[in-house]
What we know:
Layout lengths: L1 H21 L4 H9 L3 H29 L6 H17 L3 H14 L5 H28 L8 H21 L2 H7 L1 H6 L5 H19 L1 H28 L6 H16 L9 H11 L5 H34 L1
Helix pairs in contact: 1-13, 2-14, 3-4, 3-6, 3-11, 4-5, 4-14, 5-6, 6-7, 6-11, 6-12, 7-8, 11-12, 11-14, 12-13, 13-14
Amino acid sequence: MRRYLFLLIQIVVSAMLVFFIFQNIHFGDLSGAFKNVQIEYIFIALVFSIPAWLVGIFKWQFLAKTIVDKTPPFRFFISYYLVGYFYALFVPGGQLLGEGMKAWRMSNKSEFKPQLYLSVFADKAIGFMALGCLVLISFLTQPVLYGDRLSILSLAVSAAIVLAGIMIFFSRVLLEYFYKVPEFLVKFLPLFIAGHVAILKGLLIKYNQRRKSTLIGIGIGAIAQLIWVLVIYFIALSFNLHVPFLFIAWTFLIMSVATFLPVSYAGLGVREGTFVYFFSLLGVSRELALSISLMLFGFQVLAALIGGGFELKELWSRIK
């Protein structure tokens, strides 16, 4: 019952955000933007999205190898990474469900189940650390953001993410303090859950002891995110819109953090609202900002559909 209530709240939030965004949209201008889109730039953006996906997938495999002696082949990381996107976009539960499905599917391919589960957490956490670092850099290079309250709040959240990551992955002492909260909570949970929490702590300590690998993971994550920024840069050019690269980086990075929060259905409304709001600081029309957001969403849907194909293939093989 609680799950359905939470889903209903997400749908209501998304509906309200979409209504708020679209009530000031001139649909004639929106359709005109898509009619005049320059296909060659869309093609370039689509081409660059492939290495963006692959670098992100490689980061996950690299972090898994940090604590697992033998990982499944790279093709499994590709398929389950995209399966995660399928569940994140098309199945109630959002990105949290998508990450969970990635972990569950991958763990079934190896005897190192706890390690592969943690690799998904580490992949997302270290990815957020890379996001946080890039947000700090992009903010400092964009004076238009300095006086904006939402930008200041976003910067503070990003700084908190980076600090939390430092606590977990770079300081053994701070990790011990950080872990007092879940250790306190497991006293009220079944014994088998407490056992899993203890295993999780041991594996986190392994990451904490391999700080060089964590730094490399942050670097790989930053590269993946910057390639995605390049994808959006070319999408913007397809609408004949020239936006500073680092401003696009700021908008995309904040959107990535915001859509991970389970406040809306599949990030619907949050994604579009982020682009419309921040691009308005540069004087970009709502229609153009929304067009860029929708085009990026189309790229994500394409990846999710491929992931859905992988999922159907696996389900079919089980039935047979």
